[in-house]
Amino acid sequence: MTKNNTFLKDVNDGLSQYPKYLSSHYFYDKNGDELFRQIMEMPEYYLTNSELEIFKEQTDSIIGSFGLDKSQGFELIELGAGDGEKTQHLLKRLIDEDFKFKFIPVDISNNSLHQITERMTDLFPTLEIEGKQGDYFYVLDELFISDKPKVILFIGSNLGNMADETAANFLNKIAINMKPGEKLLLGLDLIKSQDIVLPAYSDAAGITRDFNLNLLKRINNELGADFDISSFEHQPEYTEEEGIAKSFLRSKKKQTVYIKDLEKFFEFAENESIHTEISRKYNDEILQRLIATSDLEISTKLLDRKNYFADYILIK
Ligand code: AVI
After folding, report:
1. Alpha carbon distance 104, 301 (integer Å)
2. Do the beta carbons of residue 252 and residue 275 sit within 8 Å?
3. Are 250 and 272 a contacting pair, CB within 8 Å?
4. What is the pLDDT of residue 164?
5. Nearest to residue 82, comparing CAs of 33, 142, 141?
6. Ligand 1 close to Cβ of residue 282 (< 6 A)
7. What's residue 2's pLDDT?
8. How far is the CA of 209 from the centre of ligand 1 (A)?
9. What is the tens place of the pLDDT at every residue in 203-262?
10. Cα torsion at 52, 55, 57, 58 (round to 10°)?
11. ipTM surpasses cut 0.90
12. Which ranges of the chain have pLDDT less than 70?
């Protein structure tokens, strides 16, 4: 099935079920990539700065926790690399300390991969870098072909966009590919109160709203739909008890939407919503549960000063 056929099928399945659902996976077209970059700069979106602080101020602890042998080369694989803003601090220290390694950023977006490769090559002309384009869920096996030791980075709380069962399967899939003693650095947003988490998903400037609505624009542009974007609104939810931020698109009125490529109409009741995203927040217990059936163990946990975010180093 071609990429757009999968999109078409997922939109048809998601809008035909009750409650309606569209995967946040589809947020990231060129416009979505740009909106996410802007979200990361919003004052309310504390996740980026919290993890950046760990990468800037605890770089030696991160590198120490990898337990690398300087005389041996290794591969640093970053899943869902994005713009590399945090990783550049790690790369700089590794280069300064004379570690021999190849950096392998993996991203679904060719556009992001191109940008990170340019940025890192400009910053570190001697860095060996080899980007890999693809959905990290599917290209994982191909990343472990060489027998060089590996360090895997999966930061930014990207795991949080997966349901727990999918997240556990994904961690297990990574673990199966790792050799004993290898490390996975997993960056996770921690469970905290609603007054901190909810604004991160409903910033005052409305960028997160546009990010969510962009999904409907994408369906209009790519599948010939006639969503009236102004008649849907961004609806974020979070409770500390549940620990999962959720985003919905709520229909402000009763309406019918036509999707040309499906030759099909979809009915929306007033206030009916489409569930578009989960952003799970974690604690040690939840992570332990997710890795319970894998060969991974928590070896180190690094926190930012406010205890908002954790970088866990997991060892196989
Ligand atoms: C990419 N991911 C970890 C972001 C998050 O926080 O769940 C995506 C995002 N959605 C809304 N704002 C940011």
Report:
1. 24
2. no
3. yes
4. 98
5. 33
6. no
7. 64
8. 12
9. 999 999 999 999 999 999 999 999 999 999 999 999 999 999 999 999 999 999 999 999
10. 150
11. yes
12. 1-3
- Cα 316 to Cα 298: distance, rounded to the nearest angstrom: 9
Please give the pLDDT value at position 36: 94
Asked if 237 and 246 count as a contact pair (C-beta separation under 8 A), the reply is yes
Joined together, the tokens standing for residue 179 give 């050799």
Answer for the pair 171, 291: CB distance below 8 angstroms, yes or no: yes
User: 279: which strand partners?
Assistant: 245
> Distance of CA 293 to CAs 50, 154, 171, Å?
29, 19, 10
Q: Which two tokens stand for residue 248?
A: 């919905």
State in Å: Cα 288 to ligand 1 middle. 22
Q: Which of 186, 197, 279 best tests ligand 1's pocket when mutated (most atoms within 8 Å of CB)?
A: 279
Residue 83 pLDDT: 83
- Using the mean position of ligand 1's atoms as its centre, give its distance from the Cα of residue 58 in Å: 24
Token pair 């009236």 is at which residue? Answer: 228
Atom of ligand 1 nearest to the CA of 40: 13
Q: What is the reported pLDDT for 1?
A: 57
User: Using only C-alpha atoms, what is the Rg of the chain?
Assistant: 20
pLDDT value at residue 135: 87
- Centre of ligand 1 from the C-alpha of residue 279, in Å: 6
Which pTM was predicted? 0.96
Cα–Cα distance, 16 to 136 (Å, whole number) = 28
Q: Would you give the DSSP letter of residue 168?
A: H
**β-strands 244-251, 309-315 pairing:** unpaired
Strands of the sheet with 20-21, listed across from one edge: 20-21, 273-280, 244-251, 232-237
The two structure tokens encoding residue 37: 């970059």
Decide the pairing of beta strands 255-259 and 297-303: unpaired
